[in-house]
Batch of 2 targets.
Target 1
Amino acid sequence: MARVEITLNNRVYPIACEDGQEGRVREVAAFLAERIREIQGSVRSATDMHLMVMVGLMLGDELLDLREGKVPGAPAAAPAPSPLEDPELAARLQKLADRIEAIAARVETP
């Protein structure tokens, strides 16, 4: 198991990940760091946890829009098929959810 140190809001977090996934973890961390900076521009006194919750809500909103077939700036499209109708998509979403939960657990563990 590999370890990566990521920095979010000037705090360093050691993250364990599968071997070979270090680059992806860094890429996701950079994406999150950018989102945090966007939020900080409008909410100056937020705690680290508050910022993380706000970023999570923003990303969740975007994910739900994508699932519903909404694309920013595009006309409304037909709703995306339910993951239950596509076993491969359901499996991929479950794997992603498991990875997110594992990362969150590691971040919470000192």
Note: The mean pLDDT is 82.
Target 2
Amino acid sequence: MEVTQINLNHCDIAQQLLWQSTTESLCDVVIIAEPYRIPPGNGNWAADKAAMAAIHVMGSIPIEEVISSSYEGFVILKIQGIYVCSCYAPPRWTMQQFHQMLDALTEKLIGRRPIIVAGDFNAWTVEWGSRCTNARGYSRLEALAKMEIALFNEGTVSTFRKDGRESIIDVTFGSPSLMSNINWRVYEGYTHSDHQAIKFSIGRQNPAIRQRARTYERKWKTTAFARDLFVEALRVDSGRSILNENELTDILVRACDATMPRKQEPRKERQPAYWWNAAISNHRASCLRARRRVQRARTEADREERSAVFRVARAALKREIKLSKRNCFKELCRDCHSLWQK
């Protein structure tokens, strides 16, 4: 099972790029802190009460059971016999709130094996590479002892990077039985978040239980199109008068899925995000180069100059993604209109 862990910092573009990068790496499970948006009605997603921590399975491995999603700060799922927990403790929380979250988390996980606990606790301790240990760090270590889990972080590579500041606040813990061949590492690709992604593997996948990945291409067998059924499917989702592009796209896709089957094309690899193209790929590479130049700056003046270039590259990537999604939306509308006219 291939796992990606990241804090998206509630950023839309970061979540969009995560979609593409996990497709490229054939990821099975994504552990997310501060997601931008939880898709409604999607059985492959689960989040905590405040939508601060989430887990997304990529379709090849099903969610066996939702263990806990009613607390703030963590969500626990059972996936392939492993209890996977995504956590996020915002800096604004008081120590009392932090302790309450840890107590609830510990209560839910004690006695369950094997487990993975990953996320951003905004806690510092020398145990995972910080220069000192703060109050949250001490509390987190006490909770670790109760749950009998080990730290998976390796090395001293920072996971948070912003304006020349770096720290290790994204951490991964798990049962000692899972530590063999886990291949834990910090991903150096561009994420558009001020956090780097973390990637690791758990065990070996059983090909017999791997399901075919769902295609994200908007292609349907139009010979089966039923106009009356399409209209009725649209009426089911017609509760709101004002919708943004993403919401309207979701409604149209659900209506098409309810009306006719999708085309299934034989393929060995997952399809990229529907809006992905060569221009976006080039912009992502430019952002990665610009960010690395900022990180290597030796003087404040040099850092400021390179940061300006990086900001321009980030803005260009954001514009290109929005333009591509807008064009895809228009194309989808044209296809739906053509079907309506038949």
Note: The mean pLDDT is 87.
